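hi support,

uploading two proteins for the ticket. first:
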Amino acid sequence: MKKYLYLFWILFLIFPTYSSADDFFGVPVITEGKAAQKTDARLELKTGMSHDEVVAFYKEALKELPDIKFREWKNATYIEDDGKLPWHSITVSKGDNEGTTVVIMKDNWTWLIGTLTLRFIGVFIVLIILLIGMLISGNIISRLAEKVEVKKIAG
């Protein structure tokens, strides 16, 4: 049993990055922030830093990653990963007098399946609209063709 305990401590000391709490799903967490809410898929931090300082921190921390998009919204800055990272987004709030709120969301299958379902349904809606349009135009062309044939036979 002592061997396993020693092995555990050696591994703990060799791999300190796995034992530290400085990141959440690979996203660096601001050390001055206090966790307001933490679940398996979401981390909400309150920090005394300004919005611009937090955004600058994440721009510096994530500059090496190629699939990161920064979007400026009216009430927040939205940082999204379009790649294969285990996290989906970081939302940095604007205009909060008590400090800045940072929300880190884990990438989840609900969003992915929802998007794919909407696209799947959308394709069939477009195909149904095209089918209805082709049926209407086919009926109009058939009636016009019948009138032309009747005129040729009568004429």
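and the second one:
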Amino acid sequence: MKKWMLILSLAFLASCTRQNLFCRVTLQVDSAQPIVALTVDNSLEGNYFRNLNTGETYSFPVFVNGKCELQVLKGVYVLAFDGVAAGADGTARRVRSAQYATMLDAVTLTADEAMVTLKLLELQ
């Protein structure tokens, strides 16, 4: 009897499909000037990439050539940041992205891969 229970349990587990719980998201900035690198100070409380379902907060990696990639748990996210963007001409300017900063503007990341375009506002 135990042998049959074990066989049935293994057959059941083998028949279950694996569901991917994570989304590989590419964040891309929309800027009038080309950006070589964009850094975000993740220690500031106003800079966040937060899963509304779990409350987990992710750190922003460095954006290289206006893009960065990270793997996050699928869900609904709010994100906002202030950062320093380095241009191709060597200039550095302070920028802000607050397009998805509130629950009403949250972005849904439920596919296996997603691309989110972030509009940048230049700060004085």
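thanks. also noticed: The domain at 20-122 is CATH 2.60.40 (Immunoglobulin-like).
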